[in-house]
Fold this sequence. Notes:
Low-confidence stretches: 124-136, 257-263, 477-484
Strand content: 15-25%
Number of helices: 18
Number of strands: 15
Amino acid sequence: MKAVIYARYSSDNQREESIEGQIRECTEYAKYNDLEIVGTYIDRAFSAKTDDRPDFQRMIQDSAKKLFDVVLVWKLDRFARNRYDSAFYRYTLRKNGVRVVSAKENISDGPEGIILESLLEGMAEFYSANLSQNVKRGFKENALKGKWNGGAVPLGYKVVDHKLEIDETSAPVVQKMFEMSADGYTAKQIYDYLREKQVRRANGKPVAYNSVLYMLSNRIYLGEYRHSGIVLEHAFPALISEEMFEKVQATIQKHSIAPAAHSENDDYLLTTHLFCGHCGAMMTAYSGTSRTGKTYRYYICNRARKHLCDKEKAEKEKIEDFVVRKTMELLRSDEVIERLAELLYELQYEESTILPHLEEQCREREKEIGNIVSAIQKGAASDTLIARLTELEQQKAALMETIAEESKKSPVFTKDEFKMALCNYRKIDVGQLEGRRKLIDTFVNSVFLYDDHLKIIYNGKEKEETVSLDELESSKSTQIGQPF
C-alpha cells in the first residue's frame, strides 16, 4: 500500500519540531506496517478548524490521481477538528479510494465522531449530500458568477477583481508543458524541464512532480471553472485549445500505468481496520492462485510478509462476512441505537460552542417577551414596557439571524432524527459491496485477530465484542446475501 503523510501545526507559538516529530512517528508507523511513503504534505501555522490549508487542499486534489491509498496522520485532529469539514473531505477521499489512518490511534480518539461523519454524509433530507453546498453556499454563488473562490491560483493565471486572468509571465510555461506532452514527452521529462528552468508557483514553491499530471489534465486551462457542483465553460480566457487538450489526454493515457494495488485493496473492506493480534501490525490484501487456476484471497499481517511475525493468513470473505453479521446484530438492539443517538446529539454541540449559548440567550428573550405581553394584557401597559418589548423583539430577531447563520455551518439535528438515520442502517443491503463497506466504515473501529479469538471494537463508547474462532468457523455457512 502507498501512503502520504499529512502533518500540521496550529500556530507560530508551536515549534517546527512538532512537524518533524509528526513525520518521524508517521514514518516509523509506515515502516512497521510496510506502507510505502510516496509523498508528504505540510501546513505550518494553520488551524484544523478551517479547511483553507494549502497543502491540505493539494492533498485532497491529488487523491483523485490514484497515486496513494492512505493518508497517514499523527493523530486524527491533525486532519480536521471541524466535524462537518472532516465528513466532507473523508467522503471525498473515500470516493477516490483513499483512507485516513492515525499513527497514534489504532482505536480512534473520538470513535463516536466517525459515526456522526458517516450520518452527515447520508442525511440528505436534513443536510445536502454534497456537504460543501450547505457549508459553503457563498462559494456556490461565487462560482455561478465565475468568481475565483480562493485556494492556489493555477500556474498561468492571476486573480484580478476576483476573476482569473492570463498571467503573461507564466502562461507560456503552461503552454510549453502541453506542447511537450503532445509531442510525446513523459511527465518525468516535463518535470525535469520545469526544474531546470526553476519554474515556481505563485507562492514561490517549485512545481511538484505530482502536480505535472494534474496540470496537464486540468480543464481549467480550457477556461472551464468547476466549483461546488457548478461547471462554467468559458468562465475566463483559455490557455489551451480543445484540440491540444484532447491530444495531451491521449498521450497521458498512453504513458499511464494503472496502480493495480489500488484496485486490489479497494474491495478488501477491513483494510486499515484489521490488525494482527500478535504484533499489532495491519493486516492487508494478499492473494494466491492454486494449480487449477483458482484465486484465493486472504488478509495477511504486514510483518508476516517479511517473516517478522508468525501470524497465519485469514480468509478474506469469511472474516468480512462474520464482522458484517456481528455488526448487523449489534444494530438490531434498540438500546444501542438509543445510546448512539444520545452520543451523537451531544457531540454535535461540541462542534459549535457558540450555538448552544445563542439558543439559551434567545430562550431568555422569549421568556421576557412573554412576561411583558402578559403584563400588557392585564392592563399594565406603559411607554417603558412597550419600549422594552420592542427592544427585546429586536434582540431576538438579531439572535435568530445569528443562529441561522451558525446553523448553516453546524446544522443541529434532533435525537429522533439521529435515531431514524441509525435505524436506516438496518435496511442496508449487505449482499452489495457498497452496503457492506458503508456498514464497516461507519461502525467498526478496529478488529484484532488472535490465534483463538478475535476482538471487534465498535465506534461508540465502551462497546467491543470478543468472539472465539470456533464461532467464526461455525458461521461460514451463513449466506451473506440473506438478512441476518
